[in-house]
Amino acid sequence: MTVKPDWLRVKAPGRERIGNVKEILRDLALNTVCEEASCPNIGECFNAGTATFLIMGPACTRACPYCDIDFEKKPKPLDPTEPSRLAEAVRRMNLNHVVITSVNRDDLLDGGASQFMACIDAVRSVSPNTTIEVLIPDLCGNWNALELILQAAPEVLNHNTETVPRLYRRVRPQGNYDRTLELLQRTRKLSPSTYTKSGIMVGLGETDAEIRQVMQDLRTVDCDILTIGQYLQPSQKHLQVNEFVNPEQFAAWKAFGEEIGFLQVVSSPLTRSSYHAEEVRKLMERYPRSQF
Fold this sequence. Notes:
Number of helices: 11
Largest sheet: 8 strands, mixed
Number of domains: 1
CATH superfamily: Aldolase class I
Structural class: alpha/beta
Strand order of the largest sheet: 1-2-5-6-7-8-9-10
Distance between the termini: 49 Å
Shape: globular
Order of helices and strands: HEHHEEEHEHEHEHHEHEHEH
Radius of gyration: 18 Å
Number of strands: 10
Helix content: 25-40%
CATH architecture: Alpha-Beta Barrel
């Protein structure tokens, strides 16, 4: 067994607000990726009064071997009350920035795009000054569904690359690297005012050169924001960690990403897709879309 290094040991946060966040989530019957995917930062984020909402149920129609979210071939039908309950949580938590993600719903014709749109509209109706980030699946390449989500005008659209092309068959067997890049490229063309974002896990056997090539590929499709974090094995049944990457390497990737033109690179062992996502508001002030 590979011993987890000191830089991956999470300090226990204070608990002033954790209970309040959990109470709101339970009261409104909402799921979070923080809980379902066993995020190591859950204590820090809940204590800060934030959470990443997971819509369309806690079970996914894909069984990616790195992910701790449950697999279910035929999930329950969508709940039409979910958008209003999510919006109420945003109001109660007084969020300036909200991240909405979902499980893969390959059983739905639009991949769940209409539910994303409804959630965005519901949040706008109760909290118009809250900036909205959506972390979406690949929608099986349904570009009409992507356009539907973008019609709701989220400030940020995130779609994770996850790993390098060579490892896709093992890590993300139902995904497609070229489709991921195309989704981000189409987002830029369909909605030039939307900031695009993606994320990579490391420690699964990729090389430094492969990571840098993925970063270059993402810049080729004009991706604005990148997150890079260490993969952690959720359980014995999931993919094993190949390597614990040292913090200096994360710093080197951050410097390289900024050099090749990303507006923001968040790169550290504990970085996750929505970790400190609210900082995008500062980026929006510094790089307003009117400049592009």
